[in-house]
Amino acid sequence: MSSSKRGAFIVIEGLDRSGKSTQVSLLHDRLQDAQNAGPTKVVMLHFPIRTTAIGKMIDAYLHSESELDDHTIHLLFSANRWELASTITAHLEQGTTVLADRYAFSGIAFSARKGLPYEWCRAPDVGLPAPDLTLFLNISPEVAATRAGYGLERYEKEEVQKGVKQVFDKIGREMQEDGGSEGKWVEIDAGKTKEEVAEDLWKAVEPLVNGAQGSIGRLWENL
Description:
Layout: E1 9-14, H1 20-35, E2 42-46, H2 53-62, H3 70-93, E3 97-101, H4 104-113, H5 118-122, E4 133-138, H6 141-144, H7 158-178, E5 184-189, H8 194-205
Parallel strand pairs: 1-3, 1-4, 2-3, 4-5
């Protein structure tokens, strides 16, 4: 597809317990209502997709039920995204909006925080379908740590989240400066009430309610 309207690809990123899953669900419902076209017009994806063979390995690792080398788990996360790449593309070409909870940006942030080279972390995801809009739920690690359920998974430790946020900040700066195929990066204050955050997200998403224009971009294809 080159010029006709297609589905929009929208990603919500953020630290653990920043409210991503809640806001993705709220946004999904609101998009459905706005499109007034039935449930098939908007699909939700929650990365990692834990139902695939690779996803099950990731799930065991995140729950500290297995141990894997840092390089290995990073490549598994990337492979999990590639498992869904053709599905995402097909949805978009059919006019369906795709709403994702986490994507390649999380993969870079969590692995680079461990000390793996930034460019190496990015390389496996080059060529994935690029979001038209990435919404980063910005919250301090200290506030996130006070939220219900914090600490249930491997990376939910305040010192880890501080390092992850630094990498996210770098990614955001690069995308805002570049403005290329990776789409628009918008920061949302996630320290507000759930309702206020939902309204801020909607303001950013509303222009894409009826789809996106042009061909589907590819992540970092011009590197």
